[in-house]
Amino acid sequence: MKIGKVIDNVWATRKVNSLNGYKFLVIELENGEKIVACDNIGAGEGDRVLVTLGSGARKGTYEENVPIDSLVIGIIDGIGGGNE
Amino acid sequence: MKIGKVIDNVWATRKVNSLNGYKFLVIELENGEKIVACDNIGAGEGDRVLVTLGSGARKGTYEENVPIDSLVIGIIDGIGGGNE
Amino acid sequence: MKIGKVIDNVWATRKVNSLNGYKFLVIELENGEKIVACDNIGAGEGDRVLVTLGSGARKGTYEENVPIDSLVIGIIDGIGGGNE
Amino acid sequence: MKIGKVIDNVWATRKVNSLNGYKFLVIELENGEKIVACDNIGAGEGDRVLVTLGSGARKGTYEENVPIDSLVIGIIDGIGGGNE
Amino acid sequence: MKIGKVIDNVWATRKVNSLNGYKFLVIELENGEKIVACDNIGAGEGDRVLVTLGSGARKGTYEENVPIDSLVIGIIDGIGGGNE
Description:
By secondary structure, chain A is mostly beta strands.
């Protein structure tokens, strides 16, 4: 998974039918790369998030036949050593 | 997913049989990289699009056994904050 | 998919059994990167080709249980705008 | 697989339900890139580990429907020639 | 697939159970990147090999539920033009 920050929303009226209702977020990864990920846990702009890429992204949706390749799987509370 | 812009079409007469009828578009991604993606929602040159990479690309086609790895899943209307 | 040019063949006598009979081509992608792809449509040196990467590569073979990750899916005739 | 070093833990209270109970580690790969991987063999900070990326990561969990894309599959004892 | 050279072995006593018996090789790819791949055709240090990445790697093992993402699929005899 990758750590990134939600920086924007993407709006697309014309899209593959099975994607109706899905929310698309622009995520800036730690290396500066920008990707677009789906979200169904309520992440919003400014949140630091964990993103799963590839086929694993579909395992976190309610139906696995959606044509997506990235999903926000968690909103990060903190990063730190095990004894903190 | 990645954001890119449709810049060209690709023509290939000799191809794997299951790809007959598929349209191939050259997409320039935001980082300058060029890829070729299939399209079945009518994207054309100049459109800004969302592209799914990997096995997810096949989930947006009518038959899943086509040997493709990228698909245009949406034509972008806008990118912006949630309260716009 | 990626656009590349066939520049060489690869010979490997000792290989995983299920790959007997498969042809391996060295492909130089547009960004200069070299990969090895299987081919079953007769691409040869100097041809400009479309290559599918990942699990999609196996969808274009006669049996899906071969351990490959890239396949030549088309020989490119031309690249150009929709109104040409 | 990639070789990396465990450098931190990631905490995320709000996450996709199926991930409850999973441990997330920040791994610094040999090329300096940082990723987050799940772990179920007890790797801790400072350990040098082998990480599997992509769909293979889920093959090492107890249930394959978790939305992850990387897993610690081994803690490295040593790297060296065959005749050592 | 990628072309690389076997440069080392990796030893890991503590690992995911299903990997017992698997051999792990450090491979230096042509672009200098180092990865770790499994091998079951007897490749050794100094061999130039073909490596399959991703889900295809598991298609060349005896059981598909191992958490790996790269496999040596051939030992390269030569690279050259079709009429050599």
